Amino acid sequence: MTPEPAQDPRAGASGPPDPGAAPDPPPAEVPRLSLNQQTIRQWSLPELVEGCVAADVPGVGLWRAPVREYGLARAARLVRAAGLAVTSLCRGGFFTAAEPAERAAALADNRLAIDEAATLGTRTLVLVAGGLPAGSRDLLGARERVADALADLAPYAAERGVRLAVEPLHPMYAADRCVVSTLAQALDLAERFPADQVGVVVDTYHLWWDDTVDAQLARAGKGGRIAAFQVADWVTPLPAGVLLGRGQLGDGCVPLRHFREVVDAAGYRGPIEVEIFNPALWERAGAEVLAETVRRYRAHVL
User: How far apart are alpha carbons 210 and 51 in whole angstroms?
Assistant: First the structure.
């Protein structure tokens, strides 16, 4: 249900507000917005923190490689001192290898990712399942290996206050990047474990095409499984390699506000993370991209 609009504080018993009066000041904070580090990847971590503080953006989503480059403990202190929430750490996963040595290495790396998330103070570690091993056509077998890895890692993560968040990716990534392609498939995996240990990521870029997604969002909400909500738009033509083709909010065909309303109706009240991989954005001044992103977020998501 759409909430009723808030009453204008200038409108009293005498009637509507004076159209000539000064406008209300903007809110001191952009509600629920988190800026994923990859959206303005041209910024260093200190620049990202400074920019978000200046723009009243309350959260950031971080990636492991730039955090490691800056220094894990140093990054945790920087973000904490700025008063920003780390809404997620990306990424763990890549569980689908069949060879025992490769699987052991993946599990070890994911335990390290869990430790990094705990140090940064985020509860959410985003997992990308991994694609098919070379020469394989066994999607079901690959998904079962994802479940096996979750069974190994979920207790370890829970002990450190971290929740594993399975992210379904668009089916075009199934062969090489992620054998979990729908929210239903992600929930089928997550629901084998306690909800406080394993949840799912809802990313508009990956799920907008699925005509069952509203029902699956309701299912996810009922089970308390929505661990993260990310937004980006879908624009065509897709670039070569397709990975870096996400659109700025409002530039494509994704019904972003509808997604937000359905996610809200499912009971999710957490951060909304803007995650856009787009070289055209990376070539621009970071402050300009952030200001545009905040405007687009207000116009198309809220």
Answer: 35
Global confidence as pTM? 0.90
- Kindly report the backbone phi and psi dihedral angles of residue 230, in degrees, each rounded to the nearest multiple of 5, phi listed first: -120, 145
Q: Give the span between the Cα atoms of 111 and 257, in whole angstroms.
A: 36
Per the CB < 8 A criterion, the answer to whether 130 and 96 are in contact is yes
Pairing of strands 233-234, 198-203: unpaired
- CA angle, 210 then 2 then 209, to 5°: 10
Q: Going residue by residue through the chain, which has 302 residues, state the pLDDT in tens, using 9 for 90 and above.
A: 433 333 332 233 333 333 333 444 444 589 999 999 999 999 999 999 999 999 999 999 999 999 999 999 999 999 999 999 999 999 999 999 999 999 999 999 999 999 999 999 999 999 999 999 999 999 999 999 999 999 999 999 999 999 999 999 999 999 999 999 999 999 999 999 999 999 999 999 999 999 999 999 999 999 999 999 999 999 999 999 899 999 999 999 999 999 999 999 999 999 999 999 999 999 999 999 999 999 999 999 99
